[in-house]
Amino acid sequence: MESLQVQVQEESILIEKVCQIYEQLSKLETLKPSKDVDNLFTQLVHACIPHSSINIATLPPNIQEIRSKLIRLCGEAEGLLEAHFSTILGSFKNPLHHLNIFPYYSNYLKLGRLEYDILNKHCSTTTQKTPERVAFIGSGPLPFTSIVLASYHLKDTTFHNYDIDSMANSMASRLVSADHDLSKRMVFHTADIMDVTDDLKNYDVIFLAALVGMNIEDKNKVIQHLAKYMAPGAILMLRSAHGARAFLYPVVDPNALHGFDVLSIFHPDDDVINSINSFCDIAQFWNPLTLIIPS
Asked: Using an 8 Å Cβ cutoff, are 136 and 161 in contact?
C-alpha cells in the first residue's frame, strides 16, 4: 500500500513538472535553439528519462490534451534544432568529420547500434541476408540514423531517405555530398509517403521516424499504408515511447497493428529516448510459421 502511494505521488510530481514546462514552452515566441529553449527541453527530457510506471492512456483528458500539444512542440523544436546544426555542418568542407558538434550525436550512435543489433539478430536466425536497400521515412535535414548505420554497420547497403520537405532533403544531401562512399549510397526523395506505393516493395527494411504522424491516428494511417505496399517479409522498424517518455513522442501499440507480425520490442532505460519495435510485414501471407523473435 505504501509503495502504491509513493508511486502515485511520484506520478503526480512528474505530471505537475511536465505541465509547468509545457506552459513555459507554449509562451515562447520561437522554439529555435536558444538558451531558454535548450534549458526547458533539457529539463523536460531529464524529467521523462527516469523509469516510470505511469500509464499515459489513463491520464485525464486535460492532461492528454497537454501531452498532445507538447509532442507537437517537441517535434517543431527538434526540426528547428536539426536544421540549425545541419546548416552549421554544411559549412564545413567535409561535414561528416564534424558530426560530434551535435549535442545528441552520442545518442544516435547508441540508437544506431541498438537498431542494428535488432536487425542483425533477426537476419542471423533466418535465411534473410543483410539488407541491400533500406528506406528511412521522415529523415529530416540531419539524417543521423542513415548516416550512422551506413557508416558503421551496413556498409554495403543503399539508404533511401524520404521527407516531405524539399529544403530538409537539400540540407541533408549537402552533408554527404563530399563523402565518396556515402554520396553513392544515400538517396533522397521529396515525397509524402502516403503517395509512395509500388516503390515501397523495393526495400528490405523500412524505418519510420518517431515524429512521422504527430498523433496516433495519423501514425496508424502511415503504418497501414506501409503494410499494404511493403514487400512480404520486409521489416518495419518503428520508434515509439514508453513510460514518461510518452510525453515526448507518440506511443505505438503493437497489439493495434494489422498486417505485421511482432519480431522484437526494446525499451531502453538510459538516455536513448525512443523504444524500438521491429515488425515483419505479413500483409500478403498470414503465415503461421513466420518467425517471431522474443523481446
From this structure: yes
Please name which of 39, 56, 12 lies closest in space to residue 248, comparing C-alpha atoms: 56
Domains delineated in the chain: 2-90 (no CATH), 106-281 (3.40.50.150)
State how far the alpha carbon of 110 is from the alpha carbons of 75, 148, 262, in Å: 21, 10, 22
CA 42 to CA 24: how far, in whole Å?
A: 13
The string of pLDDT tens digits covering residues 181-194 is: 999 999 999 999 99
Enter the C-alpha cell of residue 271: 538516455
Chain centre to alpha carbon of residue 60: 26
Provide CB contacts within 8 A for 31, sequence distance 6+: 25, 37, 73, 76, 77, 80
Angle at 99 between CA 94 and CA 102, to 5 degrees: 140
Beta carbons of 261 and 251 less than 8 angstroms apart: no
Q: What is the pLDDT of residues 2-28, one digit of tens each?
A: 477 778 888 999 999 999 999 999 999
89 close to 98: Cβ distance less than 8 angstroms: yes
Contact between 222 and 192 under an 8 Å Cβ cutoff? The reply is no
The dihedral sign for the CA sequence 251, 39, 170, 173: negative
Angle at 170 between CA 84 and CA 234, to 5 degrees: 105
Q: What pairing do the DSSP bridges indicate for beta strands 235-240 and 275-281? A: antiparallel
Specify the pTM.
0.86
